[in-house]
Amino acid sequence: MRWLVGWSSAAAGVAGALGGGATAGATGYDGETVHPVGSQLLWGDPDPLWAVGDWRPDEVRVVSADPQTRIAVLGLCGASDEQLRVALFAARGGALRHLTAWSGSYTAVVQVGRRITVCGDLAGARPVFHTPWAGGTAYATAALPLADLVEANLDFPYLAALLAAPDVPAALDDATPYDGVKRVPPGHALVLRAGAREIAGYEPVASLAVAAPPADPDSAVDGVRDALVEAVRTRLAAPRHVPGNGIDPGPVPGMGPAERRAARGMPVPGIGADLSGGPASGTLALLAAGLPGMPGTVLGHGTGAGERLLAVTFNDLAVGGREAELERAGALAANPRLHHVVVAGGAETLPYAELDGPLTDEPAAGLVSVARHRARLAAGSADHFTGYGARQVLDAHPARLADLLMDRRRRHLVRPVAALAKADGSVGSVMVPARVYGAARRLSRTPYREGLDGLAAQLRGLRGREADVAELGDGAMGAVDASLAALSWGRPGPAARWLTGEALAEVSVRLQAAAQRSALGPGQRPGDYRARAALARQAAEVRVLEQAAEIRSQRLHTPFLDNQVVRACRALPEALRVRPGARAAILRTVLEGAGVREVPGGWGTPTQAMATTTARAGLRGAADALMEVFDRPLLAEAGLVEARVVRKAVRGAAAGEALPLDGLADLVSLELWLGRLLARRGTCWTGTPARARAVPGGIAPLRGALASGG
Q1: pTM
Q2: pLDDT at position 575, please?
C-alpha cells in the first residue's frame, strides 16, 4: 500500500516548533516527534509532506520554482519536468484544472507559500482525505493513517449508509469509516491556507436547467480513442522495473522457474494485461501490444518472450459456462505480439473461499473474492493492465433515459427500450416500452429533494417486513426490472433488507438532512448524477481490491479511470451511449484507429452472466465458515444487524433461495474488514504511544440510534 501524508498548521511558528526543518514531524502526547512509518520526506516544515510505502523512484517527482513554490507528483504522470515547472506559475494564481489534465494516474500536491493544494481525481480511484489536527489540518491519500493520527473511532452512521444506500452520494456524504476523517469528493481539490481548509471543484458540471450543446458522435469517439491510446502510451514509456533483483534464488524440487516465481508471490518482469474475453480488457491488451515500443518482458528475464505482452485469462474450473469468453480470449491472443497464459482456478478461488487477508484502507464487497483476483494477478506482469471502469465510463446508466426526456429527445429511447424488451424475452409485449417510458418520465419530473425524501421513506418502510428481491436488487433480476429500479435518484442497497430498524432510521435521517441542505439539487441531471455515483463506487472497489490482492512489486494500471479518459468519455453524447452495444462499438472504433481491424465474433457479449452462479457456489462451500463469522458478529455489536437474521440469510442463499447475493457480499466484507481492523497491532506512525491508533476502544457505538442489535 502506498500513500502520501502531510499537514498544514495554523501558524508557521507553531509548525516550526513541531519537529523542525529537514526532520519534519509533530509533537505527540508526551513530547515525542511523530513521523509516518516507512516514509521518505518530500519537503519539510512548516507544512511537511511525506511519501509512504514502496514507491518506485520514477513515481515520486518534486519540481521547485523557488523554495516556497514547488509541486510533488506521485504516481504515473505523462507531464515532463518542464511542464510541471510551467504549471507551477499557473497554480500561483489559483488555477487547478490543468494540474489534473496530464495523462496517467497520479496525485498532485502544490505548495505556494503557506497555501497547499492537493488534487483528487475525477473517478475517485486516487482519493484525498483530511481531518482537523493540532490546530490545523492533516491530509493523506489514505484514510487509515489519519484515523491513527487522531485516534478516530468508527463512524457507525456511515457504515449503516454504506450498507443501506451505497450508490447514493447524499447518504455517504463526505464521510469515511473513521469518525472525523473526511473525503474530498471526486472532481475536487483540498486547498489549505495556514491550516484552514477549503474544498474547491475544478471540473465544470452540466447544468440542470440548460441542455449541453449537441456533441458530434464521431469527434467524441475520436476523443476517447486519443485519450485511451495516450493513457496506454504513457505507461509503456515509463521505466521498466524488474521485481526484486530479477534473479531466481534457486531451484525447488518439482517446480519450474515460473512456478517458483508464482509461489514466492512475484510477478513476471515487463508489461502484461488481463484478457478476459470482454471488450475492455481486450482493447487494452491489443493497444499495449500494438503501440510502438517494447511492451513485453524485459530481455534477459522471465520467459524470454522479448517484446510479447503477457496476456492472462482466468479459467474458472469450479463453475462452468464461460467457454465462449475463453474462446474469444483465445482468438484475441492469436496476435503474435501476445503471450497467452490461462490461469485455472478451482474451488479454492471461489468467492468466500478465503476469509482471511490483509487490512485495507476501507471496506468493499470485493474482499470476499480476493483469492480469485490474487490467483490471476500472481500470473501477471510487473505492470499489469486491467479493464476496470470501462462499463461505468462508457455505458449509459438507465437513469440517462430521463435526461433524454428532459432534452425532448424521445426518439432516442426507442432502440434501448426495444433492446431491453428483447433481453427480457418480452419482444411482443407493449407493456415494456410503456413501463420504461413512464418511469423515465416520472424521474425527469421528480426534483432531487423529493427523490431523497422518497428514498428515506422507503428505508423506514423496510423494517419489519421482507422486501421484494426486485425492489432491492439481485443478480437474477431481469433487464427490464433492473432498469426500472435504477430509474430514480437513489434506491435502497441490496443489503438494506437485513439492517436493524435503528440503522435504517439513522440513514433515513441522513438523507432527510441532505435533502434540506441541497434544496436546489446537485446541479446535475439525474442520469449524469447516477452515472458519476456508479463510477465513484467502482473506483473505490478497485482501490480496495488493489490493496487486498496486492502482489509485491506489481502495479495495476486502470486507464479507464484516468482523468483524461473519464473526461473524453463524458463528452460522448447521451444518444450514442444509450444505443445497444455502444461500449463494444466504441472500443471497436478505438482499435480500428490504432490499426486493429478485426475482432473475434461475439465481441461485446456481456461477460457478467455467471457472477450469480459463481457467488452461490462460493456461498455453498463456505456456509459453515460464514456461520462461525456471524456467530457473534461485530456488525451486531455495533447495532447494524441482528446475527440470527444474517445467519438465516446465509443458509437460505446457500440453499438456493432468491436473495440479493451482492447484499450478502456487502455484509460479509464489512464484517471481515471490522475484524481485521480491530485485530491489528501497531500504528501508521512512529514516535507515538501505543494508544495512538484508530478505534482504540473497539466497537463502541456513539449514537443511541445504533444500540446493540444482539
Answers
A1: 0.91
A2: 86
